[in-house]
Inverse folding.
């Protein structure tokens, strides 16, 4: 079902509910007397039906509702009473609207009938002509009926959200009871009992999935109206904006979905108004005339992460500071001390706005503070990341307050914790006897995993204890892997996520709590929060840069050319490590090059240059970017084996072209590459200005 069809179905469901409500109000008013509140409610309902019908272009439905609204307007204003003839006419409007909605559901149009007789009656009542003969107002029910659908065509039932909440709670308790029974019966030799438990396990899982589906809805439901918002607002402001939506299928609890609709709409409007520039300004900055606004959603570490990204002007730090000082939000002294992140956080201050003038879009200071409040009300968080002139990213983290998820149960400090499995990549056992050990680079513990340096965190230490643990749980945070060292791993288990108490929500290392199979409580770890608390924000490339800047030992990148030949490249002039597609390689002046950071990067295939050509035909390859002066050179290799720190003594015996010599590095004979010589062979003088 497409986005437009989903919106149409929502219109039909809500429209029929409005008609049911209107019918009840009319009948009740006729029986018990019409109060001003009841008349206002009747008027609002007809007005809503008219407005939504007009939005979808159902002119006949809109036209009939409009005439009915004119009559009710006089009743609401006290110019005439809600008499039985008026109520009868309005009830006929309800019947006619239902008929047209049936046509919409079956054919996509509101039918061929103009309902002229009913319109004549409504107009006459509005003008005070009194009721017309009954024959004039009969509805042509028989010939106006839409093509008949199958028997019992209603395939959906509207259920009170409170009942769904109750079902979710009961399903969660059933899962907990199931887990406890499975634990107690695991050692049983009673075959009938074991079979019954297996059957109970299966039924509970199926019931749990079904109940979850009743509560979970794709986030696309909250996005369906955004294309229209973007179109209308961009046109009003004279801007060109392309909207991209990613992860529309990401599931959210229905109550959370409803809670974030308004904040998302406000952020989108804010991005178009304050962020994306007009076409002439974008072109003057070297940008495309059309701005990009991207919404992206995904599950991460037991949360739903939503990003709203635009390529607009971003936040002007000086302008924000100036406005904050003018409004008394901060002092001049404090403004001078603010970091870029703290400047962005000022946008959440109550009443804060950078708009130069008040419009119907912005400038009243009622905005991002309300967004932040509404998101925090459901246990979420929001943060802004901006680069002046290059755009802004707003990240919203929403907890799965009502969810049942698979988790890995780990131990640390004598306690058990749950790690959501969607953040777990693999498990590694540390065994110094087999050569697997933890090393340190500038005080940071790292582990060599298949040639990659994996930064480590000790869970005990993060939670306030000392460094202990023998098992590494390899996790990923925003695409960056890191290892969490724990004392042990117990099992995997489906857990019921319970929200943290309000007083504990500031503890970013946890995303919730659960009750395990033995009935004891365990906290659920927040992968992203743990990485943030520990200050783990560097990638492998940044780790290389740290390695370069520490102590005075020799540091090398080790590359395995063949099974029996290793070479080393000194790290002191390695700028970074990159991975590229083979298709990106071009040729210039007879040598291989590629476009890199708006420059031309000449390439040297290290194996071929040293007489050991690679037989690899992979679609991707690794490049060691070697820098001296303002010159760059890319050494193409199949992969990096290791980064080694030790004092070495290079032997120049049997010196070969392109090598400084050989040395024993990490216990193995290794050739040390002379990159400058390889560059000179290509006519490149490294170190030249």
């Amino acid at each position: 079902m497409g986005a437009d069809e989903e919106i149409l179905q929502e219109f039909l469901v809500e429209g029929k509910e409005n008609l049911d409500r209107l019918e009840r109000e009319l009948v009740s008013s006729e029986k018990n007397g019409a109060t001003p509140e009841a008349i206002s409610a009747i008027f609002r309902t007809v007005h809503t039906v008219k407005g939504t019908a007009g939005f979808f272009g159902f002119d006949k439905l809109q036209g009939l509702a409009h005439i009915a609204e004119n009559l009710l307007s006089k009743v609401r204003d006290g110019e005439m009473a809600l008499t039985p003839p008026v109520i009868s006419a309005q009830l006929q409007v309800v019947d006619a609207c239902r008929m047209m909605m049936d046509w919409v559901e079956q054919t996509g149009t509101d039918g061929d009938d103009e309902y002229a007789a009913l319109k004549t009656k409504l107009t006459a009542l509005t003008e005070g002509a009194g009721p017309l003969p009954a024959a004039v107002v009969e509805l042509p029910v028989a010939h106006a009926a839409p093509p008949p659908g199958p028997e019992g065509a209603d395939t959906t039932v509207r259920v009170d959200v409170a009942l769904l909440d109750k079902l979710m709670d009961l399903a969660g308790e059933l899962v907990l009871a199931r887990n406890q029974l499975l634990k107690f019966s695991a050692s049983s030799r009673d075959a009938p009992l074991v079979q019954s438990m297996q059957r109970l396990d299966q039924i509970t899982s199926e019931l749990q999935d079904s109940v979850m589906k009743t509560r979970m809805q794709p986030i696309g439901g909250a996005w369906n109206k955004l294309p229209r918002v973007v179109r209308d607002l961009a046109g009003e402001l004279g801007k060109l904006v392309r909207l991209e939506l990613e992860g529309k299928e990401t599931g959210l609890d229905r109550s959370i979905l409803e809670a974030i609709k308004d904040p998302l709409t406000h952020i989108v409007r804010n991005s178009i108004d304050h962020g994306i520039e007009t076409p002439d300004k974008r072109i003057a900055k070297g940008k495309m005339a059309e701005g990009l606004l991207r919404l992206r959603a995904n599950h991460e570490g037991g949360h739903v992460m939503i990003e709203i990204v635009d390529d607009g002007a971003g936040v002007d730090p000086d302008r924000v500071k100036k406005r904050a000082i003018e409004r008394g939000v901060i002092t001049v002294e404090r403004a001078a001390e603010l970091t870029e992140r703290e400047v962005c956080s000022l946008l959440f201050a109550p009443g804060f706005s950078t708009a130069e003038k008040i419009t119907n879009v912005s400038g009243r200071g009622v905005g991002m503070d309300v967004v932040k409040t509404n998101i925090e009300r459901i246990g979420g968080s929001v943060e802004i990341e901006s680069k002046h002139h290059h755009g802004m990213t707003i990240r919203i983290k929403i907890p799965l307050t009502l969810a049942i998820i698979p988790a890995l149960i780990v131990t640390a400090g004598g306690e058990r914790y749950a790690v959501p499995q969607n953040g777990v990549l693999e498990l590694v056992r540390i065994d110094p006897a087999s050569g697997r050990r933890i090393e340190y680079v500038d005080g940071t513990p790292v582990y060599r995993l298949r040639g990659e340096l994996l930064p480590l965190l000790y869970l005990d230490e993060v939670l306030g204890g000392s460094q202990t643990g023998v098992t590494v749980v390899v996790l990923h945070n925003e695409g960056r892997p890191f290892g969490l060292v724990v004392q042990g791993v117990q099992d995997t288990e489906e857990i019921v996520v319970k929200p943290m108490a309000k007083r504990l929500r500031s503890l970013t290392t946890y995303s919730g709590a659960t009750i395990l199979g033995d009935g004891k409580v365990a906290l659920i770890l927040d992968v992203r929060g743990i990485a943030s608390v520990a200050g783990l924000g560097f990638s492998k490339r940044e780790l290389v840069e740290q390695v370069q800047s520490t102590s005075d030992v020799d540091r090398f990148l080790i590359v395995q050319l063949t099974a029996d030949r290793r070479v080393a490249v000194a790290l002191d002039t390695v700028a970074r490590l990159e991975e590229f597609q083979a298709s990106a390689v071009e040729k210039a002046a007879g040598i291989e090059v590629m476009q890199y950071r708006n420059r031309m990067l000449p390439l040297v295939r290290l194996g071929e240059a040293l007489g050991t050509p690679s037989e690899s035909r992979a679609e991707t390859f690794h490049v060691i970017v070697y820098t001296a002066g303002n010159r760059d050179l890319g050494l193409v290799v199949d992969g990096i084996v290791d980064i080694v720190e030790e004092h070495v003594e290079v032997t120049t015996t049997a010196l070969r072209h392109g090598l400084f010599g050989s040395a024993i590095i990490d216990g193995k004979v290794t050739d040390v590459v002379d990159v400058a010589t390889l560059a000179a062979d290509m006519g490149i003088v490294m170190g030249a200005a």
